[in-house]
Structures
1.
Amino acid sequence: MPELPEVETVRLTLKPALGAIIQSVWTSGQPLRLNRPLPVAALRRALTGRTITALRRIGKYLIIDTDGPRSLLVHLGMTGRLRVHKAGDPREPHTHVVMTTGDGREIRYSDPRRFGQVEVVRRGAEREHPSLAVLGLDPLTEKLDGKYLLDRARRRSASLKAFLMDQSVVAGVGNIYASEALWRSKLSPNSRVDRLTGPRATALARGVRDSLRHALARGGTSLRDFVDAHGAEGSNADYLIVYDRAGEPCRRCRTPIQRSVIQGRATYFCPSCQIL
Ligand SMILES: [Zn+2]
């Protein structure tokens, strides 16, 4: 599932679409997340004839602004791809939205598993959308520090792993970067969040920021489906420190990395140097 570095990579690689004029909008007619049908009429009304003016991101949500009052809100779900093609390129299977632009290109959204989200929002009011109103701090665009995490940890008893993956705490961190950030901060994924202290919270904030920036610099992590807006895979999978590396030696202490399941999700950690 794409997490913050992957979504940010899509945003950055979509930049050639800035300034393009959307001439027409096509949809597959199939529903996406929550079995909600795509809002075809609203998409056409909001986008047709409009110029793409900005590409923004909040957590794992992409926002495509136009010179009109409404913006396109996109969440890639598990297998969503947002790509720029030449208009004549064959369409990938499971293409659900196509925006044809005046310069002979198409911005296409494809999504085999259809857990993604494509909606229209009023520009400037996107934070009022129910999916975004609940989001916590975005660790790339806002200041994530130990004080913030400590504050959000109050009166909670979840595991640190679950805490990091809670989108109302830190927006954009998912299963991969939660494991990576905890290794970087030398904290156990099973540790209870109410045991977080000032220094540990500071280390955790740094671990989150560093693991995300590290991945972003490598174009994101492509384990299965993720590609950027040009169709290129990111190289960060080769640079993950613990995720999907059970049995391999820890880079700090050489102890084999362990895999366990927390809240139904695979979790990777070093049992020797992540003990707090
Ligand atoms: Zn270790």
2.
Amino acid sequence: MIIAVSGAGLALVGAGTGAYQVTRQPRTATGPWSLASATPEDIRLDALRHAILAPNPHNLQPWRFRLEGDDSVAILHDPQRRLPETDPFDRQLTIGFGGLIEIARMAAAARGYRIETVEFPDGVAENGLNGGVVARLSFTLDAGVAADPLFNAVPLRRSTKEPYDLARAVSSELLARLIEEDAPTARVLGTAEPARVAAVRQLVLDAGEIEGRTARTHLESVRLMRVGHAEIDASPDGIDLGGPMIEVLRLAGQIDRTSLADPASQAYKAGMEIQRETYGSIPAALWIVTPGDTRLDQLAAGRAYVRVNLRATLLGLAMHPASQSLQEFPEMRGPFSRAHQLLAPGGGRVQMLARVGYGPQVPPSPRWPLQAKLVPA
Ligand SMILES: Cc1cc2nc3c(=O)[nH]c(=O)nc-3n(C[C@H](O)[C@H](O)[C@H](O)COP(=O)(O)O)c2cc1C
């Protein structure tokens, strides 16, 4: 994934419509983060409006929801939403579903409901989600349910895809608090130790280079790029490239999907440079390891990931996944085995790798409204 921008074109910011266009932000794309509006009476809709804020690969939001009876919801995969090049078995998609289910659980608990989850009620397809039911959730009022303190961080959580402050180390005490919670099915591990961080950094940079220079994996990202506020509002998903600099370059005709796809272009080169700067800025790293790589392992990894991302938010830390080295396409075999030697020498599957540090405040990422994701019973 790249974010492209270049210093060129800034002189174009002038008066009149240009300046207006340049400073415009997406208007509707981040609406689903405003949770202050009336709480839906139906607990399922309340849980789902929080759950759609879960982190998910390339912000594909590959989910759909079917309300069933009075107290259940089927969480379905949308077969139109896949990443066949970088996620050929829908492993990363499934991790995203895990985060969604975990936030739904927290939102239900906040109103005193327990969720019973049946994963893959119609069976598991290891090769792909194929538009099937990922999980069925049933909601029951239960006086014994405890609220989860991490729930407060749901609207504040971000994937902070910016360079971090390298002058500010993440102390080993803070890192230990961040990763303290460990489920037997999804272990959360981390390091701020300089030699290990340096090895992770080289791995992340090498893997990013491969993904960015392999035409079909790069094009998969480019196709998902939304350039400028109007595109982001029209399709509030994918890789959103917004902000004044992008608007200037877009108006100047210097950035669009065609230029971003072309390795000879300025936009592509600038994008790769920004990618190196961002992904290379690693004060500390964390990763999640599961015993195997079943669908249940992947869901567990997603639940663990969103929990650690929410805990980071409460601790004032920024996080950003760097998944390239964990992907299954053939060109990535070298970094994939290096990642496993480095991060899971005792065995297991590394499901997530993320950089951790102190970063700037960033706006929330786009989301489709919940209504757009409901399918008839
Ligand atoms: C399984 C998984 C893998 C991800 N890998 C990357 C990645 O390699 N690079 C990246 O910038 N973001 C990655 N992300 C973060 C998503 O891009 C991010 O969650 C999405 O854009 C929505 O933004 P938000 O988390 O700020 O709401 C990943 C997220 C998940 C769940």
3.
Amino acid sequence: VKGRIIGISGPTATIDLEGLRLYDRVQLGHSRIHGEVVRLELAGAVVQVYEDTRGLGLGEPVISLATPLTVQLGPGMLGSIYDGLQRPLDVLYEQYGPFISPGTYQPPLSPDKLYPFQPLKKKGDTVKRGEIIGTVTEGNFTHDILAPESGIIDRISQNDFTMEEPLGEMADGSPIQAVHAWPVRKPRPFKKKIPPREPLITGQRAIDFLFPIARGGTAIIPGGFGTGKTILEQAIAKFADVDVVVYVGCGERGNEMAEMLGEFAGLSDPWTGRSLRERTIMIANTSNMPVAAREASIYTAVTIAEYFRDQGNHVLLLADSISRWAEALREISSSLEEMPGEEGYPTYLSSRLSTFFSRAGVVETMSGATGSLTMILSVSPPGGDITEPATQACLRTSGVFLMLDTSLANRRHFPAINWFQSFSLYEKDIASYFTEHVSPHWEELRQDCQTLLQREEKLREVAEIVGAEGLQDCDHLVMYIAEKIRRQFLGQNSFSDDAFSPPEKTVERIDALVLQFENARTRIEQGDAFEDIIREMEP
Ligand SMILES: Nc1ncnc2c1ncn2[C@@H]1O[C@H](COP(=O)(O)OP(=O)(O)O)[C@@H](O)[C@H]1O
Ligand SMILES: [Mg+2]
């Protein structure tokens, strides 16, 4: 089916093709750039175009691909860097250099690389849809190859294979493949959802101890410019206790992604000692790339993440930042001349976001394993004002809220997580998990820590009115220890040896500080002077 371009407006184009479905993919113009149908009209459709529309002219041809935007899922993704449409940026860079002309395409999974295949079933075996029939090894990682349909296996390979050839065939003729395509806007199936109960350890004390994130949960990190969103997300990408990390650079600076790529190549996963690159997939849609592809990129990312979840892995999706995604949505919506909602965002912003968030979770997979998909998204509200629509929409659906504070960042307290405004809906479950598995005092210490921080805040207000002389020795002690907690415990420099703190170390450190407090308090009660006690504590 062929048609023509009859209008172009910003990142969208109007075409005269009929018989299309919503989200069908089309190729536009002589350079065959890709787009996706976002509105159907009486005699045609409107398409959001994934590449720069400036090269397109009216009357140029349009071809329907009759499929929605899909990703290729299978071995070969780990360590890759893709754009929002799963084009392999490293492969394209090698071939074409830094300037990729519109319409350029390369397969996302290397077609001629050999992978070892280990069959677990044989010819004549009856299998159920989604049952594991063999495994493919990719480095240290094992991919389960699942039965495409219920039925009998007619042929199954015993050899190494490339992406080109099927691994076998079912009796009804359907091929058994290591690679398959999946439409990005459609969540992948699973047996059932399980409530998140286990922690996703980030190695960041302020998060793990005060505002823990659950595996399968969702967290947002709102913060103004320069408050440390990118550094915090990158630290979590390095240290999180997960099997696979999918990192989306969404509308932010490209050099940050490039630096991260280089840095990760030389680092290892603190939990397994393996190369960090091997567990990471990066999706780059930086500020210089077209907005329609940016809109699509988070769906590409979450679908890849679901693929690994479906194999019984713990997967973490990080996006920096979801606000730039919301802005892309706004730009597309405005060029479609839709009725704008609050601050020009489309009225469906909130429902789109909650549909996206709902793809996180712990699941029982089709093959009966347990997998999880956790999402951590940074939010960059203009001027740091969290009452704006995108932040509010995220806030309504996320389980953890890590508010980054400009005044803390200005004082160089990093991560600049505000300990009064942030919260975690998983705190009860996760604290009891840590109490059981890491330290019997975890919950108690958490209480002590929070109480000390709150008392400090109150005392500071009092001191402002009556002056520091008005405080008693035990008040001075509270302020002294609380400051230590802020500096030595909550503060954690990502560029030092302290960047990663496993839970055992975390609890040890807060335990030592609380113990100091209790000992000093006993001595004050016995009549010792605050100054003397401090002098002894500071070597
Ligand atoms: N955890 C951290 N440890 C040390 N320095 C940090 C940390 N987080 C942020 N910074 C400092 O703040 C700067 C801005 O951080 P960045 O993550 O780029 O902010 P944002 O992404 O919110 O604009 C960094 O270049 C770094 O100097
Ligand atoms: Mg940033």
4.
Amino acid sequence: VNDQANCEPDRAGGRTSLLERFKRAVASTRESLSLQLNSIFAARREIDPESLDSLQEALITADIGVRASFEVIERVRRRLGREPGGADQLKQMIKSELRAILEMAERNRRPEAPPPPSAKPYIIMVVGVNGVGKTTTVGKLAHLIRGEGRQVIICAADTFRAAAADQLAIWAERAQVQLIGQRPGADPSAVLFDAIAAARARNADALIVDTAGRLHTKSNLMRELEKMRRVASREVPGAPHEVLLVIDAVTGQNGLEQAKHFAQAARVTGLVLTKLDGTAKGGIAIAIAKELGIPIRYIGTGEHIEDLLEFSAETYVESLFD
Ligand SMILES: Nc1nc2c(ncn2[C@@H]2O[C@H](COP(=O)(O)OP(=O)(O)O)[C@@H](O)[C@H]2O)c(=O)[nH]1
Ligand SMILES: [Mg+2]
């Protein structure tokens, strides 16, 4: 995705930069962090061990996570011993340590070799528990990829809930892409098989698959996802090329625990962090990177079709502290 695609027209007729869009998404997190940082530094001129402890608390309040916050503060403590400085240096150090955590997860990303022509369509499965924003993300992602000039088809493989396909049909219309579905209760793998055939017939570049978040039992759900994987890989070499796990930022540390189980069972290659706009605990991306070690690929920043941004560690960290 190029930078242009990540910008949106603003009211003045210009384009809002990616940083501005990230900043808007984490506005309440940034405000709360900066209030806390200001009060820590207003109280003292020099950075002492006590101010570092308060700082760690501030990071935990933003949902950066206990482990990640501890690690960041310990590294900063050591660095300050070697290169003492004021509040500004400290802020820079924190930023670089936070980036380092995100970049560590980024290293687990699959190399993005251009798929051979035989690997068409590029298949993206979107998974996660109920209500996290899977269907919404499928619609936004279809719009994003289509905006790059590629042809997209979406697949309604959440056949468990009758309303799921209707909801996806609305998104297909908004994104102006074709939807392949079947009657409620159909075998999701059969729907996927149909969708792959349709994508082939139309020479589509990408196929995005919406899946169920809940079945009668969790082992049923995992077995079903596994079956879909098999169908995809049998039909298209290397597929599914991406399995995106959607995590709701508002659920914070609880959602993270859930995601851990999911990530292991569903062989997830990347994460989508939704509803960042709805929380003052927007530091959760750091906790997720630390705990799961899986790269964050996109963030959801609202309910509109444009509200999906490709994740950038640098821009994200900048937007938290700017
Ligand atoms: N504010 C906000 N709401 C979102 C975002 N993504 C999804 N939602 C909302 O979350 C709710 C559940 O979304 P849905 O896509 O149906 O979740 P699913 O059950 O995982 O498919 C809907 O009301 C969406 O509008 C986001 O990034 N920001
Ligand atoms: Mg859904």
